[in-house]
């Protein structure tokens, strides 16, 4: 019962945050053209080349996902791992350095 | 080593590997990317449940003004939670597999794509800091788990 209550609490917190984000993005999207950039700028006259010109980088990536070309080298995974490692290392060594400095000062 | 620590470590390791796979939808494919991230939401909830006591204690200390060293960690954990919610919300809203499978017809909005990318990149930064803050615990549990009979002077303390 306690665990169910905790799960509900986590989900409620996530729902409140998600709802606030959804409302914020839709409000911003309604007042500015940011939310509709892709749709609004795209030509509707059926000109294929011009449509490609206006197609966002993300749409190109979607096509790559599903075109059945098979296995991709996991560069994204390696990139993420390197980024996390570098961030962690910088923080860790900075913290160690600060601690050592404090200890020496005392 | 306590069973809870072992469970926490294995769950966190699994979550981290899944996170890395999910970070590369080009390699894994969009279906795996989406369904795996849904599963990651469940592991995130379990992670929070396993560290519930720390969350409650630190929150209480924060309201009493007695919190010192754990403040950055606490703020960082909240940022990670908010960012995770944003990644999942934007991911569901731009979903190509999960939403159609569940029969959801969601409106297309370019802003959610941008937000999904930005929040995922921001998650890398927070994840790096989160790991750095718990590095001593990670090393300690790893040694105890994989080095039989090794004496370890570092106390295995649990933090979210």
State the oligomer: heterodimer
- What is the rounded distance between the termini of chain B? 17 Å
Mean pLDDT of chain A: 73
Number of strands of chain B: 0
Shape estimate of chain B: globular
Please report the total strand number of chain A as a whole number. Answer: 0
Low-confidence stretches of chain B: none
The overall pLDDT average of chain B reads 86
SSE order of chain B, as H and E?
HHHHHHHH
> How many helices of chain B?
8
Sheet-strand content of chain B, in percent, reads under 5%
The rounded Rg of chain B comes to 18 Å
Structure description:
The complex is a heterodimer of chains A (106) and B (160). In chain A, 78% of the residues lie in helices and 0% in strands. Chain A has 5 helices and no strands. Chain A has helices at 2-31, 37-41, 48-54, 57-66, 75-105. Chain B is an all-alpha fold. Chain B is built from 8 helices and no strands. Chain B starts with a helix and ends in a 14-residue tail after the last helix. Classes of the chains: A mainly alpha (106), B mainly alpha (160). Chain A binds chain B through residues 3, 6-7, 10-11, 13-14, 17-18, 21-22, 25-26, 28-29, 34-39, 56, 58, 61-62, 64-66, 71-77, 80-81, 83-92, 95, and chain B through 19-21, 23-30, 45, 48-49, 52, 81-82, 85-86, 88-89, 96, 108-113, 115, 117, 124-125, 127-129, 131-133, 135.
Topology diagram in text:
The complex is a heterodimer of chains A (106) and B (160).
Chain A: H1 2-31, H2 37-41, H3 48-54, H4 57-66, H5 75-105
Chain B: H1 3-22, H2 25-28, H3 30-50, H4 52-64, H5 71-93, H6 98-101, H7 110-133, H8 135-146
Short description:
The complex is a heterodimer of chains A (106) and B (160). Chain A has 106 residues and is mainly α. Chain A is 78% helix and 0% strand.
């Amino acid at each position: 019962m306690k665990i169910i209550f905790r799960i509900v609490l986590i989900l409620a917190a996530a729902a409140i945050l998600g709802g606030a984000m959804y409302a914020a993005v839709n409000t911003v999207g309604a007042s500015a053209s940011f939310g509709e950039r892709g749709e609004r700028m795209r030509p509707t006259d059926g000109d294929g080349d011009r449509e490609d010109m206006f197609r966002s980088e993300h749409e190109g990536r979607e096509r790559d996902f599903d075109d059945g070309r098979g296995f991709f080298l996991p560069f994204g995974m390696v990139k993420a791992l390197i980024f996390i490692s570098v961030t962690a290392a910088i923080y860790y060594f900075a913290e160690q350095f600060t601690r050592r400095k404090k200890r020496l000062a005392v | 080593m306590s069973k809870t620590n072992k469970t926490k470590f294995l769950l966190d390791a699994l979550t981290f590997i899944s996170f890395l796979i999910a970070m590369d939808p080009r390699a894994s494919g969009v279906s795996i990317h989406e369904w795996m991230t849904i599963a990651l939401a469940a592991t995130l909830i379990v992670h929070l449940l396993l560290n519930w006591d720390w969350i409650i204690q630190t929150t209480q200390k924060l309201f009493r003004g007695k919190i010192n060293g754990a403040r950055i960690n606490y703020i960082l954990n909240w940022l990670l939670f908010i960012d995770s919610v944003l990644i999942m919300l934007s991911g569901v809203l731009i979903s190509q597999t999960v939403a159609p499978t569940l029969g959801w017809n969601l409106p297309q909005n370019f802003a959610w794509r941008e937000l999904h990318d930005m929040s995922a990149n921001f998650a890398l930064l927070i994840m790096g800091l989160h790991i750095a803050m718990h590095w001593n615990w990670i090393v300690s549990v790893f040694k105890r788990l994989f080095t039989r009979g090794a004496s370890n002077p570092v106390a295995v303390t649990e933090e979210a």
